[in-house]
């Protein structure tokens, strides 16, 4: 399984996702945070994304893959997702930091279930949240309690985050069949597995929305 | 010396310098790097700035100071410096990463010479380059060798980096006499010490320019 081109694709898309999340969160922190404390907290998440990127890049190199080449096929889709979901205020930035990344993580977790245990362990290590995003949940709850109409607006926006992510994921899956196969490679037929995957993603998203009081 | 307000000022300005350098380098990496490898290399420097920020913030908290309050007086001057020295291409971004930060570091090193050894050790730890910016030097040399006229233009631009830094530093020194005193607190009179300081800064800058082949 380690030699499957799907594995290099998986580590490549995950590496680019971390590198681009690093840049976007750093920018959101600098431009949207209402205080230096909030700015530091979101910058902390950004820095964590960078250290994940480094783990993945080093692993790609160990596998004999060129990290740049492995990431390149996914840059356009991930950049498009970020461009279409650019937060316009601090509340949106927090929701994106928590929900946006989590959606991507759900995809990767699914793929990791089909991997060589050693690679699966690395992916898990990169994906583990370690409570870092808890600050985002707490801040969102407080902002929404203080101004309930903002909760309705940001909940709609969170739905757009998911919709745009699924749209980009479909394009990536069409272009990279090896990677898509990692997600749906299971007895019982592809269609049933895709339905189960989408149900899992939706359920996880709803739990996160509830955690934020949305 | 630990209780001097100048020490909190020094750690505060250094903390904000790291936090803002983190954001600017992350942005320059995402928007100006010509390849994913270059983007990763400058993002690595940005992430290092963040980890320095964290050390300084934690130290401020240990001293009983509020990190946000300690940083706040310096945000305007550092933001102004970044706004006036925004790189317009990759070569400028590299020169800024190497020279721009180094100028600031020279100031802090001077101040650190007057500090309690424990604080001086932390400042040294934060300031040590560890060869991280060597990639910038190597890339600048290669770009300038390939296109010598670009060297002349970027050398002028580097001079502007220094000029803007001195201009902001003078305003900060006027507004924060305790901090200024850390820089010039020495037998022999303030004026002689300021002259020596400026000579040291200029010499260090010239060495860095030479290292880049400029």
UniProtKB/TrEMBL annotation, chains A, B:
Q: Which SUPFAM superfamilies match?
A: Ferritin-like
Kindly give the Pfam families that the UniProt entry links to this protein: MiaE_2
Sequence ranges assigned to domain Ferritin-like in this UniProt record: 6-185
* Organism name: Nonomuraea pusilla
* Record protein name field: tRNA-(MS[2]IO[6]A)-hydroxylase (MiaE)-like
């Amino acid at each position: 399984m380690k030699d499957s081109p799907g594995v290099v694709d998986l580590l490549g898309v995950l590496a680019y996702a971390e590198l681009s999340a690093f840049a976007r969160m750093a920018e959101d922190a600098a431009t949207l945070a209402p205080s230096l404390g909030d700015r530091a907290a979101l910058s902390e998440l950004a820095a964590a994304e960078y250290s994940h990127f480094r783990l993945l890049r080093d692993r790609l190199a160990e596998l004999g893959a060129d990290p740049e080449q492995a990431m390149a096929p996914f840059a356009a889709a991930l950049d498009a997702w970020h461009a279409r979901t650019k937060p316009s205020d601090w509340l949106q930035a927090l929701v994106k930091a928590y929900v946006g990344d989590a959606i991507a993580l759900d995809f990767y977790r699914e793929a990791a279930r089909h991997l060589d245990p050693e690679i699966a362990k690395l992916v898990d290590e990169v994906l583990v949240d370690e409570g870092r995003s808890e600050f985002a949940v707490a801040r969102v709850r407080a902002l929404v309690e203080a101004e309930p109409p903002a909760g309705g607006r940001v909940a709609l926006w969170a739905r757009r985050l998911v919709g745009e992510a699924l749209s980009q994921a479909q394009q990536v899956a069409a272009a990279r069949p090896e990677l898509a196969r990692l997600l749906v490679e299971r007895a019982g037929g592809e269609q049933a597995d895709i339905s189960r995957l989408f149900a899992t993603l939706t359920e996880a998203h709803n739990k996160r929305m509830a955690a934020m009081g949305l």
